[in-house]
Specification:
Cofactor: Zn(2+); Fe(3+)
Low-confidence stretches: 26-35
EC number: 3.5.2.7
CATH topology of the largest domain: TIM Barrel
Pathway: Amino-acid degradation; L-histidine degradation into L-glutamate; N-formimidoyl-L-glutamate from L-histidine: step 3/3
CATH architecture of the largest domain: Alpha-Beta Barrel
Radius of gyration: 21 Å
GO molecular function: imidazolonepropionase activity; iron ion binding; zinc ion binding
Shape: globular
Structural class: alpha/beta
Number of helices: 17
Bound molecules: N-(iminomethyl)-L-glutamic acid, zinc ion
Strand content: 15-25%
Domain Amidohydrolase-related: 75-405
């Protein structure tokens, strides 16, 4: 084994959920009940600096500089949280209480957080961001996306993007989150496509649009997504959250990497999403990122917190759609960064097997961010699965199997976390 960094052998792993399924997408196998593709028993992993250097049976593991005895615990890839909104100040407890008393969620609450965020100093936002990222890591998240979207003018969207880039792995431009009160919708859309986009562009890899009644129409959303794509950003969509609508079909039409929420889907939406995956031959093929379709990202904590019908994750998987599970951490609809809680809910309430849910929150998130492949390409390694050459992002549970995530809901099962080879929990 090459000695590029200090090596660490993690052995006696009772159950290793690699989520590495090179011969196909694996979802059908995982859903078949009992079969566990991508899972090894009595396994070991060797980390070499930031990368995974070896994966195999514990009994034949090579020696390393240091050793960590897992004592039979389960190990998964670190969570890949592909959808969050962490750049904000203030909270919306009163809105949440009103919702629990029967009021429906509406997009307008975003304006409340916009006001608090604009009023906060850079240092205050930095402190809040650092605390939120630390909470996510403590729960096993090792790769994190976050969005702008509570600035909603050029200066504050730029500030949000720049601050986010200091703290997270991927930043998404969400100037098209809400038309600020008093602004003309078409003029604001033009700003989002023009000066605002130019300002944030150096800090962001993605653009997103809230395509929903009360936010941005199909036509406005298309304009924003096309302008952002033209500027070299990958695109994604908040769609079909509050009711049936054009979000999913627009996302597929424009080759979005993901459409997120997907609570209200008709047959045509599911067919469009499935069709986007028709030419995909799985994670191992050379053109795996280029051929990937539109991931449907489900947000179980948001569904519970807004009392929305749960997104039809089971139906999507059965139709051949690749799904992700993410936290959607934000002050309005989902004030939690616990991906573990989302996985638990997906198993208990959405009909996913444990390995399907773990896969969606690891490999699925990576796929939604197009980081599921790559071996030091552009300085990036694959995340979301455990295989040689991938980034050494591991989540060890204080439990013998991932099943305990659902079997022991709400328990603090995170025992240790390595991010890019560094022990962070
Ligand atoms: N739906 C749009 N955006 C957020 C909610 C934002 C808010 O209410 O502050 C979401 O993903 O749920
Ligand atoms: Zn969101």
């Amino acid at each position: 084994m090459s000695k590029r960094g200090r090596t660490l052998l993690i052995d006696n792993i009772g159950e290793l959920s690699t989520q590495h399924l090179p011969d196909g997408d694996g979802q059908a196998v995982l859903g078949a009940g009992g079969s566990e593709a991508g899972v090894m028993r009595d396994a070991a992993v060797v980390l070499d600096g930031e990368r995974i250097a070896w994966v195999g049976p514990s009994s034949s593991a090579p020696e390393a500089d240091e050793r960590f005895d897992s004592a039979g615990r389960a190990v998964l890839p670190g969570w890949v949280d592909s959808h969050s909104h962490l750049v904000f100040a203030g909270d919306r407890t009163a809105e949440f209480e009103a919702r629990m008393a029967g009021e429906a969620y509406a997009a307008g609450g975003i304006g409340v957080t916009m006001g608090a965020t604009r009023a906060a100093s850079d240092d205050e936002l930095r402190r809040l961001l650092a605390a939120r990222v630390a909470e996510a890591v403590a729960g096993g998240t090792t790769y994190l996306e976050t969005k702008t979207g509570y600035g909603l003018d050029v200066a504050n969207e730029l500030r949000s993007a720049a601050l986010a880039a200091e703290f997270v792995d991927e930043v998404t431009y969400l100037g098209a989150h809400l038309v600020p009160a008093g602004a003309d919708a078409d003029e604001y859309t033009a700003l989002v496509c023009g000066d605002m986009l130019a300002a944030v562009r150096p800090y962001v890899r993605w653009a997103d649009v809230f395509c929903e009644t009360g936010a941005f129409s199909e036509e406005q959303s298309r304009r924003v997504l096309l302008a952002c794509r033209e500027a070299g950003l990958g695109v994604r969509v908040h769609g079909n959250q509050l009711g049936p609508g054009p979000g999913v079909r627009l996302a597929v039409e424009l080759g979005a990497a993901s459409v997120d929420h997907v609570n209200f889907l008709d047959d045509a939406d599911v067919e469009a999403l499935a069709g986007s995956w028709a030419g995909w031959t799985g994670p191992a093929s050379a053109d795996s990122a280029a051929m990937a379709g539109t991931v449907a990202t489900v947000l179980p904590a948001c569904d519970l917190s807004t009392r929305a019908p749960l997104a039809p994750a089971r139906r999507l998987i059965d139709a051949g759609v690749q799904i992700a599970i993410a936290s959607n951490c934000n002050p309005g609809t989902s004030y939690t960064s616990s991906v573990g809680f989302c996985v638990t809910t997906a198993v208990l309430q959405m009909g996913l097997s444990v390995q399907e849910a773990v896969r969606a929150a690891t490999f699925g998130g990576a796929l939604a961010l197009r980081r599921h492949v790559g071996n030091d390409v552009d300085g990036q390694r694959a995340v979301g699965s455990i295989a040689v050459g991938h980034r050494a992002d591991l989540h060890m549970l204080n439990a013998p199997s991932a099943t305990h995530l659902a079997y022991r809901p709400g328990m603090p099962l995170t025992h240790a976390v390595w991010r890019a080879g560094q022990r962070v929990v």
